[in-house]
Amino acid sequence: MMRKSASLALPLLAGAAVLTAGCAASAGADPATSTSAAPSASAAPSKPALVGSQWRLKSDPTAWFWVRGSNITGNDSCNSLTGTATSLATADRVDFGAGLAATSRYCTDPKGTQTAISEALKGERIWSRNGTELVLTDPDNNRAWTFVLTPAGASSSAATPAPSAAVTPAR
User: Fold this and answer.
1) Is pTM beyond 0.85 here?
2) How far apart are CA 47 and CA 126, in angstroms?
3) Exposure of 98 by Cβ count < 10 A (0-12 exposed, 13-18 middle, 19+ buried)?
4) In whole angstroms, what is the distance from residue 114 CA to residue 153 CA?
5) Which residue from 17, 52, 157, 166 lies 20 to 30 Å from 23 (Cα-Cα)?
6) Which segments within 28-159 are labelled E, that is strand?
7) Of the candidates 144, 14, 134, which has an alpha carbon nearest to the alpha carbon of residue 64?
8) For 5-9, 12-16, 116-120, which range has the lowest pLDDT when averaged over its residues?
């Protein structure tokens, strides 16, 4: 009986080893960027990504957006933003559709920040990245908006309020 169970265990262990090796080969791979075909040796280097990055409007760093997969979240310096974007057929194009949904708080906008980020994240845009700078360009009129990559671990708000003074109760 011992010999029979040992002979059954060997194929099961071999099968488990094959499955484990297959899983280990794909461990840590991002399913959104993984492909089943191996890249060719002559393929051009890939363009730096937008996804997984937080970008601040260069003219006013209190306005920012974050790209997670096809989901976009952000802030226009006053209102929270949310929406989606899709990649287009060419690697340098992205489509934000009709724009992002925003909360409706009223804030003065002396720098035009709210309008700028709203316009930048609407419709089809050509994007280019040079180091830590991202430029979104409207292909219809060549209007461009520049964003700066936010370092990992930075807070979502560039302007952090000063700590309030502690109040000691009167005795």
Assistant:
1) no
2) 13
3) exposed
4) 24
5) 52
6) 54-57, 63-68, 71-76, 80-84, 86-87, 93-95, 101-102, 124-130, 133-137, 144-149
7) 134
8) 12-16
